[in-house]
UniProtKB/TrEMBL annotation:
The lineage of its organism: Bacteria, Pseudomonadati, Thermodesulfobacteriota, Syntrophobacteria, Syntrophobacterales. The keyword Oxidoreductase applies. It is found in: Periplasm. This is NADH ubiquinone oxidoreductase, 20 kDa subunit. Keywords: Oxidoreductase, Periplasm, Ubiquinone.
Length: 312
């Protein structure tokens, strides 16, 4: 009998759902074994019944519940809680769900500041009162899923690599609870490390032409951090290269920005990266701003109002 799966997207961009579609032909094999009973990105489902007669959000029961996106407002919270009630196993899909992701950068501002900025810019009409009717109320912060409901499996990544999505689904269908190893992007990076670099100040990536010629093999290129670029590989969970292993940005000769979140679930990429810079002899005051070190993992109360970007 097919395994019932429910999928939901909360404060999300749908990139994680694209990862599911990017399974390609493997998706056909998965679809032979699972039945999607709820997946708003593909199938319309009326939360409150076909005629809107229900009083509470209603999602069908499923064995596996996949949730992408963070929790930003009361509707997200209600949907997440209903998924938890109806699904035996909950997978947090993508770094928004596991660590707040890009949306959690908002946690360095109070809601009032965000609304003021949004409604009182040059490009929007100024309003005396912000719209509120029919709009879910904002929570005080952007939350990762496990701050509000119990999560069984974490699949970080912005977006998660389809190989990992497939491995997780295949594992579950075989009756196993998959867990990604606590390894870092550096552990899977083939670049050459010679020890502490000569650079004392961080260099702006786009201004520097010395990060490796396009035809130079990646395993001959010197580590980008040792060259003085802000590469967050040492504080970021491995896996973005999927079965090909070489981390995606490194394969493109671009520094890692940390999109898989911390190596260990409760790690702090900001503090760990400051340590990594210091141990490489790089002056941390040359960082353009500190907040961006948490650009993918600002939930779990790591980013709070007052953590503002450095003024230019
Ligand atoms: S983790 Fe990335 S791809 Fe997934 S919903 Fe968040 S922003 Fe989009
Ligand atoms: S810091 Fe970046 S370039 Fe250097 S080893 Fe780690 S991932 Fe590779
Ligand atoms: S190298 Fe870093 S930023 Fe790039 S995809 Fe991998 S984890 Fe994400």
């Amino acid at each position: 009998m097919a395994v019932k799966v429910a999928e939901e997207w909360l404060n999300a961009c749908s990139g994680c759902e694209i990862s599911i579609v990017d399974l390609g032909e493997r998706l056909l094999a998965v679809l032979d074994l699972v039945e999607f009973v709820h997946i708003p990105v593909l199938l319309d489902h009326k939360y409150y019944g076909q005629l809107g007669e229900g009083k509470h959000i209603n999602i069908p029961e499923a064995t596996v519940g996949i949730i992408s996106g963070s929790i930003r407002n009361h509707e997200h919270l209600e949907v997440a809680e209903e998924m938890r009630r109806k699904c035996q196993i909950i997978i947090a899909l993508g770094t928004c769900a596991t660590h707040g992701g890009i949306p959690a950068l908002a946690n360095s501002y109070r809601n009032q500041e965000i609304l003021d900025r949004y409604y009182h810019t040059e490009t929007t009409d100024k309003v005396d009162e912000y719209p509120s009717e029919g709009i879910p109320h904002l929570l005080d912060s952007v939350y990762a899923l496990d701050e509000k409901i119990k999560v069984d499996i974490y699949l970080p990544g912005c977006a998660p690599h389809p190989d990992q999505v497939f491995a997780a689904l295949a594992g579950l269908l075989a009756g196993e609870l998959p867990k990604l190893p606590d390894r870092s992007v550096c552990d899977q990076c083939p670049t050459v490390r010679e020890g502490k670099g000569q650079v004392k100040q961080l260099r702006r990536f786009l201004e520097a032409p010395h990060y490796g010629a396009p035809d130079e093999p990646i395993d001959k290129m010197r580590c980008l951090l040792e060259q003085g670029f802000l590469c967050m590989g040492s504080v970021t969970k491995a896996g973005c290269g999927g079965d090909k292993i070489v981390p995606r940005c490194i394969a493109a000769r671009v520094p890692c920005r940390g999109c898989y979140g911390p190596v260990q679930h409760d790690g702090n990429q900001l503090l760990q990266m400051l340590n990594a810079l210091a141990s490489n002899g790089i002056d941390i005051h040359s960082l353009p701003d500190y907040v961006s070190l948490l650009r993918f993992s600002g939930a779990h109360k790591l980013l709070r109002p007052g953590h503002k970007q450095k003024e230019a």
